[in-house]
Amino acid sequence: MDKFLSNLQVEGDGRLVPATEDELMEVESLLIDDRCGMHIDAEPGQTVGCISNEGSSSWMAQLESLEGLSQPKSKKVDPDKLNGRLEEPVPSLAPSLRESNLNQSGSVGELVAGGSPLSVTTKPDFSILKGEICLDNLSIKELHETFKATFGRETTVKDKQWLKRRISMGLTNSCAVSTNFIIKDNKFAKKGNEEGCNGMYGSFAKDPSIVNQKGLPTCLVGQLDYHKVVPERRLENHNIDDYSGSDDHENEQRAAKRVRKPTKRYIEEFSEVESKESSGRLLNLAKNSGHGLMSPKSHVRLVRNVSSGGRTVVTRLDSLGGSGIQVPCVSRVRRSRPRKNFMALLKFNPSGMGMAATLVKKALDDHSFPPDDGNEDRVLKASSTPEHVHHLFVGMPEKGKQFSVMSAAGLGNNMEMKMNSSGDSDDNVVTVPTSKGGVRRKHHRAWTLSEVMKLVEGVSRYGAGRWSEIKRLVFASYSYRTSVDLKDKWRNLLKASFTQTPPDTGVSSFSYFLLTCSSHPPENHDY
DNA sequence: TTTAGGG
DNA sequence: CCCTAAA
Q1: Bias regions of kind Basic and acidic residues — which residues (predicted)?
Q2: How many angstroms is C1' of B2 away from CA of A370?
């Protein structure tokens, strides 16, 4: 648990993208199945998504990203290496292997802890991700290597078809599969093609779903990439994520403990993590085996360089509603002004099989981003095509809303419009004098779907706890809705996410929650 | 002032 | 949502 916890706690600041009203919300989410999500946390090695919208941030963070996020204090990432790593294609599915190894060793945390991305030389190359992997072209020997990398064990089988099949399956199952690849006819291919960003992102956005050989329902994996705030030094190079594990997690955690006793939220998260762990069973192959099968693909995560404040904020990832979404959380040690630039990672993992998951991503241009600091370095490593935007609609649980996922490339703006129209409008704050002499806002101002989405986005971007930031940047146009309101709402959302999941479902509670709410089209918000 | 939490 | 303790 500690490991998990620590992993979860990895701080990362992520930020979605532009939050201001004018700006678009950009949300990228990847769908991840539960286990993946979990794994991700646990297993830093793999990275799945990468996002970038032009410079704008994108989120496709992955669990792995966490790693990247977490920065080892001690270690510094060597950009070159990273780059090299990223770019180098690795024939063998090293990642998988590595992960499996890690798992075996039981050192997931270790990986993470290893922290420095660099430190992990063994880390798999994610480069593979870039290209498509075509098992057909591999020789038996290569297939054997791949097999080994994938499953962590050798095989003597000479049957190419079998090997390909097995590998494909392994890959598919592995959470890694996440969005980018599709396996078809024994061919493991990236779905999208062109995306710019290392290719990962784009494909991601386009079609998160993965098809596996079996024709089983695809499991969705979604992740938001969050940008984590990284110490500048680290970032200095590129904002590449490092895959490093984060040893910091533990430290941070410890630090937090020192500072204050665990808060309720902390506890909740912790428990959540555990539940997650247990929940990810269905699809999760790797997990069970103990060899994580990581998705061969890792994604490069874009790291936003935040130099603005100069101050680095550490955040940890919170999971929203158990395994559904993870968002960066402000480090417990606070007191310093929250930094504006982070990217949050938000991830959804509907793990249900056959569920079509989609994340929403809103592509933003950098400009759209709030002028927050100006310092923000938005150069993300790669950019995916902005066009691919997936919108995610999330309903409010309480309301019994639904969340639907819509993936529409290039449709991004619809959402926005809808959202704006619905929620943003009235500013008039209705207050009611209280008997006590105070004025209190007239009761409920129902939270609209758009508001909720913005909130989620804001949290993913800036981190839970940075309410004032979110308020300023994301809810600037909503005069009502104070930072406290945001906080309360978030609390409710979390609560709801936990609550609504029926027991025994393989699906994570949060995912379930989202799913269950998805019956209505976005159009039907209850405004 | 802002955040976390309880009410 | 409100109120308050902490920081």
Answers
A1: 75-88, 238-255
A2: 21
